[in-house]
Amino acid sequence: MWTIALANETKQSGPAVIAVNPGSLLGSKMVTEGFGIAGSDLNIGADILVRSALSDDFANASGKYFDNDAGEFNDPHSDTQHQGKVKAVVDTIEEIIKNK
Questions:
Q1: Pick from 21, 26, 24: which is nearest to 67 by CA?
Q2: pTM for the complete prediction?
Q3: Sequence-distant (≥ 6) Cβ neighbours of residue 4 within 8 angstroms
């Protein structure tokens, strides 16, 4: 939700803002402790984040969602289309940031 809001704010003059699912159940401490499994190689997530920052494939993708599990851009959760929910999330994030 925040990605879409930021992309709308910066679409004329700012950088591309893209939501990326780096991959499910990557081998982080959170996955190990939360699910009791080693998880997949963390480089999977690192590689897609580097690619999204540097590749021409993402140059015109501002406001989109890339699902690395599927290996493609996909529709985000349907709640991202609900303006009231988007506003609530964005307002909360901005309030947290303001207070830090």
A1: 21
A2: 0.81
A3: 19, 63, 76, 80, 86
State yes or no: pLDDT of 38 exceeds 80.
Answer: yes
Q: Are 52 and 66 in contact (CB under 8 A)?
A: yes
Residue range 51-73: mean pLDDT, rounded = 94
Going through 34-95 in order, the beta strands assigned E by DSSP cover: 65-67, 72-74
* Joined tokens for residue 74: 């996909």
Percent of the chain with pLDDT over 90: 76
What six digits make up the tokens of 65? 């969602």
Structure tokens given for 47:
């590689």
- Count of other CB atoms within 10 angstroms of residue 63: 18
